[in-house]
Specification:
Layout lengths: L4 H22 L16 H4 L5 H25 L6 H5 L11 H19 L12 H15 L13 H13 L4 H28 L5 H17 L17 H10 L9 H18 L1 H20 L3 H22 L1 H22 L16 H23 L11 H13 L1 H5 L3 H6 L2 H20 L6 H22 L6 H5 L1 H9 L9 H13 L7 E3 L5 H5 L16 H14 L3 E5 L16 H4 L1 H10 E7 L2 E6 L1
Parallel strand pairs: 1-2
Antiparallel strand pairs: 2-4, 3-4
Helix pairs in contact: 1-3, 3-15, 5-8, 5-9, 6-7, 7-8, 8-9, 8-10, 9-19, 9-20, 10-11, 11-12, 11-13, 12-16, 15-16, 15-19, 16-19, 25-27
């Protein structure tokens, strides 16, 4: 029996749905033996759960339905991916200058700036765990003039560079000043999102009128995916994505006929170098894509480009190492290695079972949506790759292979720390891929309507763009405040000069006041709690580089931690009260710092005694 196209498509859709059900049922069946040779302590360790399980489960959940989709298309529709044709595809010319779209870009930029200058600088209490990662790292540098030597960071150089740069510019060292650096980063992300939307729009093969509407909607989506929120409540695009967006803006140029090709390669290498020093995770993802691209260049025999990338990276890495010094570089590598190999065990959470965890797990819905976003992005890309007569973009098709690969590997953050916030922050790029394909297919559908001639279609698309732009303005109207714009300079200066007490609750104010008095003669602060920002509040450096103590969970780092304490001999140590309430200030994922660092805790309790207690904290004194 010969199937018609509708029947074939239904059969493929039904089979993919069944494959998703199969991988969902097999999710919990995929389990590797627990392995913890480093002796790390964390929630997953207490559960004897191997964090690699989630990565393998994710890989299987995504790839099995995609393989089913490819197999059935090959059998039923005789469609498959022509690898040779995909790799050897030639560059095409694109029109870089679109006057109307450039004017719309300026309108969006005005909206973005208007929103920023209308911003009500928030006075919510400081998150001394997350904000503290920036504050104390910056304080340590100011006191020691050392970077990774003085601060073992969770995310990378961003933990000290961002506040330090802003404090230097403003000539003010305050919580308000540090927060401003993050708000400026969100501003840059929104501005770069306009450029990314422009780059994506110009490679679309829809008509000029449709491109105007595509750009308007796509830019609105991208701008809306970042928000001026506290670090812990980051949106789809967070401050950590600034280098990813910049990278993509120039990366697209490598898949079209572009006179900026070599310039883009050099900039991409610069971004790759800076990003891996600023952000361990995002920098690694960028460099992975760059290395993958080099293998692609090798396959198409573009040796000149490979040489340029190689020389650019050597140059930028050499400059960076010479600027920070070889000792700092060695300390950076040590920090990087710990995060790469131990981060999941230190603060990982088990990824919720897709579908079956919805309603039963607090992060189940978000976890399921995150996987679906990734899967649908994969299906869109595969559909495009196997559609020989469906060249809807003027860039090389293989560009979307790299975009999809980037989306997949960036989801590692969600697989590591599987709470709603991290899953949301890892879902931005599959949403971008899905939105881009859906918008293009819809516009192509409307363009093919026989009732519309070219001029009528252009007018309809243009008017729709203006309506959508107006709607975007109306939706965001609450963010635009003329009085704030007029008083921005006064409000800005007032905010960055606010006393840090304005951002602290009464209990922390009491603790800081007490500790300052008792440790007046100490030259550093030894903090053995999750309040990473505490040394900053005392205005002294941390006694050890492990200001975020839980990062020293591996046995080798605990031994180093003890070695430094013995050398520094702090008279007082801030310690958790055993009766502390259950929250992440005291027991992150149910484990206090003293639960995670057995060796260090044993040393402290053997050499220090209780001196005093303030609220949920104990001050220990050297015996």
């Amino acid at each position: 029996m010969k199937l018609n196209n509708l029947q074939k498509n239904f059969y493929i859709f039904f089979s993919v749905a069944i494959s998703i059900l199969i991988v969902t049922l097999l999710w919990e069946k995929i389990s590797l033996p627990f392995n913890n040779t480093a002796g790390t302590k964390g929630f997953l360790v207490s559960e004897n759960y191997n964090p690699i399980n989630d990565t393998i489960r994710f890989f299987f959940f995504i790839t099995f339905p995609l393989i089913v989709y490819l197999f059935l298309n090959q059998k039923l529709n005789k469609k498959t991916i022509n690898i040779r044709k995909l790799i050897l595809e030639k560059d095409e010319n694109v029109i870089n200058f679109h006057l109307v779209i450039i004017l719309l870009s300026l309108v969006f930029i005005i909206f973005i700036l208007f929103q920023f200058f209308s911003f009500n600088f928030p006075l919510h209490k400081v998150d001394l765990l997350h904000d503290g990662e920036h504050l104390t790292a910056a304080q340590n540098y100011l006191s020691t003039k050392k970077l990774w030597i003085s601060s073992y960071s969770m995310h990378g150089g961003s933990d000290f560079f961002y506040p330090l740069i802003m404090w230097k510019i403003l000539d003010v060292q305050s919580i308000g000043g540090a927060r401003i650096s993050l708000y400026f980063l969100i501003l840059f992300i929104k501005l770069f999102s306009v450029l990314l939307a422009y780059q994506l729009t110009k490679i679309s093969n829809v008509s000029q009128g449709a491109k105007i509407l595509l750009f308007t909607i796509l830019t609105s989506i991208l701008i809306s995916m970042s928000a001026y929120r506290p670090v812990v409540f980051s949106y789809y695009f967070s401050t950590r994505d600034v280098f990813i967006i910049l990278f993509l803006i120039f990366f697209i140029e490598l898949f079209i006929e572009s006179k900026f090709r070599y310039f883009s390669i050099i900039l991409i290498c610069l971004i790759a170098t800076i990003s891996i020093f600023f952000h361990f995770d995002k920098g690694t993802y960028i460099n992975f894509i760059l290395i993958s691209y080099c293998f692609y260049l090798l396959a198409i025999k573009k040796y000149k480009d490979i040489v340029l990338i190689f020389l650019s990276l050597i140059t930028f890495w050499s400059i960076t190492i010479s600027l920070i010094g070889i000792e700092e570089f060695i300390a950076y590598l040590d920090n990087f290695k710990t995060i790469v190999f131990s981060a999941d065990l230190i603060h990982g959470l088990k990824y919720p079972n897709p579908f079956f965890s919805v309603g039963d797990h607090p992060h189940g819905t978000r976890a399921t949506k995150g996987l679906i976003f990734q899967l649908t992005a994969g299906l869109f890309v595969l559909h495009y790759l196997i559609s020989n007569n469906n060249k809807i973009f003027s860039s090389k098709k293989i560009l979307f292979v790299f975009l999809l690969l980037l989306s997949f590997i960036m989801y590692k953050n969600a697989l590591g720390r599987s709470d709603a916030g991290h899953i949301r922050m890892s879902s931005g790029f599959p949403i971008l891929i899905n939105s881009f394909f859906i918008l293009n297919y819809l516009l192509i559908y409307f363009e093919k309507m026989k009732t519309l001639n070219r001029t009528t279609a252009y007018n309809i698309f243009f008017i729709t763009s203006l309506i959508f732009l107006l709607l975007f303005h109306i939706i965001n109207l609450s963010y635009y405040k003329i009085d704030n714009v007029k008083n921005f300079n006064k409000n800005f200066i007032k905010y960055i000069n606010l006393d840090d007490k304005n951002f602290l609750d009464q209990e922390m104010i009491e603790l800081v006041s007490y500790y300052k008095k008792v440790s007046e003669n100490d030259t550093c602060v030894q903090n053995f709690t999750f309040v990473t920002g505490f040394p900053y509040l005392i205005k002294k450096p941390s006694c050890t580089k492990y200001y975020a103590s839980w990062l020293a969970s591996p046995i080798s780092k605990q031994k180093d931690y003890i070695k430094i304490i013995k050398k520094k001999l702090p008279k007082y140590i801030l310690y958790e009260s055993k009766e502390a309430a259950y929250d992440y200030y005291h027991k992150l994922d149910g484990l206090a710092v003293y639960d995670r660092l057995d060796l260090v805790n044993s040393y402290i309790l053997s050499n220090y005694k209780k001196y005093g207690e303030v609220n949920a904290y104990v001050v220990l004194e050297k015996k």
